[in-house]
Amino acid sequence: MGLSVLAGLIIGGLIGVVLDISEVPAGSAIGTFVGGLGAALFLYAQRRRALIAGFLVGLFSFPIQLSIFMAVVSGHLYTPPPVPEISQDVLLVALAVTVFMQIVGGTLGGLVGNIIRHAPPGAVEAPRSYLPPPPPRPEKYCIQCGAGLAKETMICPACGARQPS
Ligand SMILES: [Zn+2]
């Protein structure tokens, strides 16, 4: 489970940072959702564990996304726009909202990933039941029992009577 959470964190972190840099609204939460989805898909486990994995991805996404973001910035791959002056309180609320949305996103991802993996029987994964081809329309009928027969049938399979040619 740890490995799938880690994979989900990395996937979610990368996507979240890319979306964030592209200024997609709630980009980090969307990335985390994808991360949770990935974690659930990597996880060959029961529903509950996939949910927990998604939740963990959401929970740990913030520091991961922050460090990826910092790495991108310090590698001069991206220069963040100048941050407008905002009060500490607003910043704190924004932070809490981001973390909350990431947790929700990750958990939702885990849920969705699990539904995809454990599709209800008969929905997606069930193989199509094999239908035998319909019997050909009878071209003649047995002289003895009346069973439908193909034109070239010499012996009736139902009663064994020889058919006139
Ligand atoms: Zn017959």
Fold blueprint:
Blueprint: H1 2-21, H2 27-42, H3 47-74, H4 88-117, E1 140-141, E2 148-149
Antiparallel strand pairs: 1-2
The structure holds zinc ion.
Zinc ion binds near residues 142, 147, 159 and 161.
Any key phrases for this structure?
165 residues, mainly alpha, two-stranded antiparallel sheet, 4 helices, binds zinc ion
In short:
With 165 residues, the chain is mainly α.
Describe the structure.
This protein is an all-alpha fold. Helices cover 57% and strands 2% of the residues. It contains 4 helices and 2 strands. The chain binds zinc ion. Zinc ion binds at residues 142, 144-145, 147, 156, 158-159, 161.
**Mean of the pLDDT scores?**
80
Individual helix count:
4
Cα radius of gyration in angstroms: 31 Å
Number of domains: 2
Largest sheet: 2 strands, antiparallel
Distance between the termini: 71 Å
- List the uncertain runs: none
What shape does the CA trace take? Answer: rod-shaped
